[in-house]
C-alpha cells in the first residue's frame, strides 16, 4: 500500500538518511525513537508537508503512485482523503473560528462531493463515533485537549483513508484521556481497515496499538520487526536501552 525506499530528508546536512519500509493495507506500524531521531520528518515527507528549506529524495510509493515527484495538486487531493494525519497539538490544526462539526463536515465536502446536508449528518455521526455527540456546535476553545484531539480524529477518518499517520497524538493529554483517545484511534482504523503509522516514544503504546515496529536512531531505521519480537528480544543496543528505560513489562 505504501512503500518507502531510501528516503533522505536534508537541510544543509541529512536529517533522515536512507529510510526504507513498507506498510500493508490495514497494518498498524509503530515508529519509535528518541526526540530528534527523524520520526516527524519521515511522517511529514510521506504527507508532502516538509517545512520550507528541507528537501526529500528517494521513493515513496502510495498505491503505486510516486509521491515525492507528485504535483501539489495531486498531494492535496490525497491528503485528508486517502492519506490523513493527526498531530500532537490539535489546537494548531483546528480552525479556532469554526464550529467543530462544521470542520468535520467541510472535510467530507471537500473530498466526498456530498451535499451540505448529507455532510452535516455524516459529521454528526463521526462525532458520535468519537464519543462527542454534543460537540457539533462547539468552538475549539470550548473543548478540552482530549476532545479537540477526538475532533481531529473524526476529521482524519472522515473520508475512510487507507493510511492514517499519528504523530504523538496523545503526548499532550492526561493519562486517562490518553487511553481513551488511543482506543478510539484503534477502533477507528480497525473498523475501516485503515493502515496506521503511529509515532511515539512510549513503548507501552506501541505494545498496545501496533503489530510491527520500526526503531529510529539518528535519522536511520536501526531495527524493525513484529512488536512482540522487538519488545521481547531486541536486536539493537539502542532498542535494548529504550526498553530498559521504560517500565514496560513484556510477557
Ligand atoms: N525545519 C527544519 N530545519 C532544520 N532542521 C530541522 C527542521 N525540522 C526538524 N529538524 C531537525 O531534524 C531532526 C529530526 O527532527 P524530527 O522532528 O523528525 O525528530 P523526531 O524524532 O520527530 O523528534 P520528536 O520526538 O521530538 O518530535 C532534529 O535534529 C531536528 O532538529
From TrEMBL:
Keywords: ATP-binding, Cell membrane, Membrane, Nucleotide-binding, Transport
One annotated Gene Ontology cellular component of this protein: plasma membrane
Main location per the UniProt record: membrane
GO terms of molecular function: ATP binding; ATP hydrolysis activity
Keyword Transport set for record: yes
Pfam families with a match to the protein in the record: ABC_tran
Keyword Cell division among record annotations: no
Record membrane topology: Peripheral membrane protein
Protein name per the record: ATP-binding cassette domain-containing protein
Native source organism of the sequence: Amycolatopsis pithecellobii
Organism classification: Bacteria, Bacillati, Actinomycetota, Actinomycetes, Pseudonocardiales
